[in-house]
Amino acid sequence: MLAKRIIPCLDIKDGKTVKGINFLSLKEVGDPVELGRMYADQGADELVYLDISATYEGRNTFVDLVRDIAANINIPFTVGGGISSVEDAGRLLLAGADKITVNSAAVRNPQLIRDIADKYGNQFVVVAIDAKRVDGVWRVTTHGGRRLTDRELFSWAEEACRLGAGEILFTSMDHDGTRNGYPCDTFRELSHRLTIPVIASGGAGSADDIADVLDEGQADAALAASIFHYGEYTVDGLKKELKKRNIIVRL
Predict the structure, then answer these.
(1) Active site includes 118?
(2) Using one digit for the tens of pLDDT, what is the confidence trace for 24-65?
(3) Catalytically annotated residue among 45, 51, 88, 130
(4) Whole-prediction pTM value?
(5) 11, 45, 88, 212: which is the annotated catalytic residue?
(6) Is 11 a catalytic residue?
(7) What DSSP element (H or E) covers 138?
């Protein structure tokens, strides 16, 4: 069985790491390069940097920041936010990113997933999906959760998989920043439906929450932010707790 991955997530706005609740009420929590280096030293398997206002504000992800991260951090990292073309993805790859995430632009133009995968490989493409429950249905949102679409989570994830996504990063907007745990039943269904890894995001408040989504939810990796940013857990400390719960992780 493959080891489960622990991935600190750094949401970026105006070059600073921020954290909020349900994508709103953002607070600065530190420098993205320094935080990333600290998490790498603690044993993070990967990092994810999301420029959360890039699509909403009409900006591309800051390539200079990606270069700075690549020069200072020795573990794989993924970058997303405002990526709307193969050229955008290529600039980030050349700047040092190991993977990119596409979200709003892929919903608008699903062919983008195939185009990037064809040029750079499936392993380079992570499709990020932000969704919330509306009348009992998981509805996909775009633009940092600000726009509700008519797409449904599971069908969109399956389509993204067919188009060449290498991984799916699903964030529950209903749980994001609440620290009340992940919707494990949803992640379990998503994992059953897909043939590619699923990264769980949105709701981690404790080691128990992460253990639950990796075990009961059958996610391949867990993304977390608040518990690391506010010093409640170190990455290596969290992994030791997970190992006690018989979750296979790299120590």
Answers:
(1) no
(2) 555 676 889 999 999 999 999 999 998 876 554 445 557 888
(3) 130
(4) 0.91
(5) 11
(6) yes
(7) strand 137-142
